[in-house]
Amino acid sequence: MQKSGKVKPPASAEVPGGYELDAQVGFLLRVAMQRHTSIFMSNMVDELTQTQFAVMAKLNEVGPCSQNHLGRLVYLDAATIKGVVDRLGLRDLVATGADPNDRRRRAVSLTEKGSRVVEAAIGVAADVTAKTLRPLTVDEQRTLTRLLKKIT
Q: pTM to 2 decimals?
């Protein structure tokens, strides 16, 4: 509070219209994601995209599963997960077949080659995370991760 008893308005109120882009969470998240994407793409093995890596890492965690379920696990819609699985299949990183629990569904699994690639990629991904978070202290890194989990 100032001596007059009035609260000083936030900095954004000093901007015409009261909206300062550089203070908006969506803008900041996008800029942070661009930085992370740049680090990811310049370090990742086998030219994997972030989405391809996420699909393969999740398969590594949970084992074979239906394409539909895999899409839900990595927050991709049905069309997007199908395209990602198809592209990974063309590279012999995943295989698809009938789901033993429901023949109407496609089951997705890592191939031997896919298992080798994802193991190497996981090591790189840990380094990418460290590089992305390097400007923060260890406590800030934990806090950021905790807060991001809370809003997702």
A: 0.84
